[in-house]
Design a protein that fits this description.
The structure is a homodimer.
Chain A: H1 18-25, H2 29-36, H3 44-56, H4 63-70, E1 75-80, H5 88-101, E2 105-110, H6 115-127, E3 132-136, H7 143-150, E4 154-158, H8 166-174, H9 178-186, E5 192-197, H10 199-212, E6 218-221, H11 227-242, E7 250-251, H12 258-271, E8 276-280, H13 283-296, E9 304-310, E10 323-326, H14 329-341, E11 351-353, E12 356-358
Parallel strand pairs in A: 1-2, 1-3, 3-4, 4-5, 5-11, 6-7, 6-8, 8-9, 9-10
Antiparallel strand pairs in A: 10-12
Chain A binds a DNA duplex through helix 2 and helix 4.
Chain lengths: ~375, ~375
DNA sequence: TTGTACGCGTTATCAG
DNA sequence: CTGATAACGCGTACAA
């Protein structure tokens, strides 16, 4: 028999509604509705008939009508800071992929760190009946999040960060101030679920890898004054302490921009002598180190081993390819959705995910066989 | 007088509707509706009163109800292929920024090149009453776009590309086959508006820059077998022809992946001698060239000058910083919105935007002063 | 200038 | 198992 005759597509603007489907079968719209949502109280025969017709006439439910009727949206709002920072991509995919499994649709909004845009994002979400919100690495004030919970939204934060006083870094870099750090870790906002990367563990892992390669001198390139920066430094120190190699130098760029990072590394390299090893706050910092080393004529990894953290998109394209601790980006996104939607979204326990070492070419054993500790010769 | 008493936020789930606002003022919902949309037939007094109350009780219009009533959505669907390829970010911003000016909200969908996802994206858009669609550098079959126009959507394509036979590249690289290229350029889909980067001009600009620096030997690193690749090669050839330097070598990686690109460059470098110059298909190809040069011990830009095209996010972080022809990414996004929304969206003329040279460190004059043409000494 | 009444496409309740 | 009916929140033609 010939292929099903496709109804000619409606003249651009008209919609096929349930009424049309119902009329085509001589049943009521209620029946159609029931068939479409697998209501048990319906005969198998009519159900399949409805499904068949709906398919043939290209029926699509009106999200607006459904939303109006049910007063619930199946939408999850997502605020990201900057798109395309090489890290957000897979997180977005994780969110979209998992949300899809729940029949939810993500509604993305790029806030670019502007409070005005954040506020507008919330207005849009509210208008759209969005009740679930995911904030991806929010950097600014927690204003948006507070307002969101005040409006009755469930919110999950992926890698939320917060400023910490600069002196905490100095304390960790020199003395023993773990208790302070832990206190910061407690400061949580209750109706918000935290999904995060284990920064301390990542710092530890990166450092342990360099130690295992035989390095005896290992420097840290600090990140900005935020909690994740502090925790990665903490992990760095822990690994070194365990190995009996603490203390080691901590490089502090004057500002969290590429140029200052390069400067800090350049300055260090001038005073040091190969071979050395470095754990950078993140891949971007690692890239700054790579550039500084290149300019100073140090070869990577022969003279300087560098390990980054994050595994951004570009980590495999640096020169040489960057060894790094990868964030489980897709999973972070997926878990945020789970936190909001699984089991009715009543599970507010924070999730902490471990990183994974990705070995490329920027770190290797010290070129001269590792002997006892070697002091940089001035 | 004390600050306006804020009504306690509704108990999480309840919505403030027009009815509430109307009741608070003792007017009808029609009046409220009119006041909110600047209907001329309303007294200034009641209008301001309504506005004031609406503001105080945190009224937000229900997008769903409005959509159902007006049968139009103020939504623009956006399909991107891969998020976070370092290029999409600013385009997204341009779309969001301009859409906002029209009171439209972008609805993003990452299709990742999977036809299944593309189809689902369309279903979602249809359900959401989306009638305007933007596709950002679609790679796959034009299936999605065809279906979209069949469903009555207006669609704009940013940097749409299409496969071209591999032999066209060979023809351009050797003979004179411009007419074929132009024919390809004609093959357009009518109800679709094309917003695109001028690939040929970019190829020309990159090449002219190298020539202006004094290079007499200038090689091209080919991209994949798509139209943009062909056009950039064409621009490369035009610039060289004008300068009386054609022909020059065209490197053809066996497959459009980083490894093969590196291999192609490595192979060329082995047979050549410094100094040389190269125009890469895009920044990623340029990065491959940088890596190959680094491994072969050639210094950039002293021994090899490299110019990329696109100016992806990471171009300023390569080692050395990449000189490249920047796409006007934000503007591409903004113009796509204009094409759909400005003047009722009846303007289907294609827009072609020029690139801009961004000078960083990867290209410089040949280290030995440029004399007559120098042949690579085998 | 304002109010009344209706319908957009669904789903849920209540009869049958 | 199925049909009639009401209501979700808003915009608008029509009446006042």
């Amino acid at each position: 028999m010939p292929y099903v005759t496709r109804a000619t597509p409606p003249p651009a603007g008209t919609r096929v509604t349930m009424k049309d489907v119902a009329a085509a079968l001589g049943v009521s719209t209620a029946t159609v509705s029931r068939a479409l949502q697998d209501d048990p109280a319906i005969s198998a025969a009519t159900k399949s008939a409805v499904l068949e017709v709906a398919q043939r006439v290209q029926y699509r439910p009106s999200a607006a009508a459904r939303r109006l009727r049910t007063q619930s949206a199946s939408l999850v709002g997502v605020v990201v800071q900057s798109v395309g920072d090489g890290y957000i991509g897979d997180v977005v995919l994780g969110i979209q992929g998992r949300a899809r499994e729940f029949g939810y649709q993500p509604l993305f909004f790029a806030a670019e760190g502007q409070p005005g845009l954040e506020s507008e994002a919330l207005d849009v979400f509210l208008s759209e009946h969005v009740t679930q919100l995911i904030a991806v690495s929010p950097t600014g004030k927690p204003q948006l999040l507070r307002r969101a919970v005040a409006e009755g939204m469930r919110v999950a934060v992926i890698n939320g960060d917060q400023s910490v006083p600069a002196r905490h870094f100095a304390e960790v870099a020199s003395g023993n101030a773990d208790d302070k750090i832990l206190k910061i870790e407690r400061a949580r906002n209750s109706p918000i679920c935290d999904i995060r990367f284990d920064d301390a563990a990542a710092g530890r892992l990166a450092t342990e890898y360099l130690i295992s390669l035989g390095h005896r001198t290992c420097v840290h390139l600090r990140g900005p004054n935020v909690r994740s920066g502090l925790l990665r430094l903490l992990g760095f120190r822990e690994a070194l302490t365990t190995a009996g190699m603490w203390p080691q130098p901590v490089l502090s760029p004057r500002a969290p921009v590429m140029q200052h990072r390069e400067d800090a590394v350049t300055q260090y390299l001038r005073a040091a002598s190969p071979p050395a090893a470095m754990v950078a706050y993140d891949d971007l910092c690692a890239v700054a180190a790579l550039r500084a080393a290149h300019r100073a004529g140090w070869r990577v990894p022969d003279d300087l081993s560098v390990v980054g953290i994050d595994d951004i998109q570009f980590a495999s394209y640096t020169n040489p390819g960057l060894t790094t601790v990868a964030q489980p980006k897709y999973e972070l996104g997926a878990l945020a959705v789970d936190a909001l939607l699984a089991d009715g979204g009543c599970d507010a326990r924070p999730r902490v995910l471990d990183g994974q070492l990705v070995i490329r070419e920027s770190a290797g054993p010290p070129s001269r066989p590792a002997g006892g500790g070697r002091e940089p010769r001035r």
